[in-house]
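ok, trying the design again with the full structure, not the truncated one.
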């Protein structure tokens, strides 16, 4: 029996976030999907990501209720998830008493980067993302 389970939410849909051997659950929050007007394409994308995450149990319903039931079924005393800036996910994590893990940043960029447009961010990030490991990081 595991002492911890992982709650996978919509901001951490990658197999790299899973702890090997640890049980994980994702819950489709149908009320949130309707409220957000989530497109079928986005839901299919989320499902495809989940299919690439080995061993993640997928449920639907009330997130807090389903994650708690999953943890109880696995006799887990700890629920782990990645920290998020989304107020909805923050509230659910608080209600679950989840242990928040800090995700490894995709790329380290200096403070003050304009994030209002993806293209501005990507102009700064792309040279670092696609550089060869032997190349020094360019000054931004």
């Amino acid at each position: 029996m595991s002492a911890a389970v992982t709650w996978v939410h919509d901001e951490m849909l990658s197999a790299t976030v899973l702890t090997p051997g640890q049980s994980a659950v994702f819950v489709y929050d149908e009320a949130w999907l309707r409220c957000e007007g989530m497109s079928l394409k986005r839901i299919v994308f989320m499902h495809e990501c989940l299919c690439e995450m080995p061993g993640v149990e997928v449920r639907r319903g009330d997130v807090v209720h389903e994650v708690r039931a999953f943890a109880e079924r696995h006799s887990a005393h700890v629920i782990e998830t990645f920290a998020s800036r989304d107020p909805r996910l923050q509230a659910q994590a608080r209600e679950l008493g989840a242990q928040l893990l800090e995700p490894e940043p995709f790329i380290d960029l200096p403070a003050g980067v304009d994030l209002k447009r993806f293209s501005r961010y990507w102009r700064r990030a792309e040279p670092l993302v696609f550089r060869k490991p032997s190349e020094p990081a360019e000054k931004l």
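Keeping the full-length input from now on. Strands lie at 4-8, 24-28, 56-60, 78-82, 99-101.
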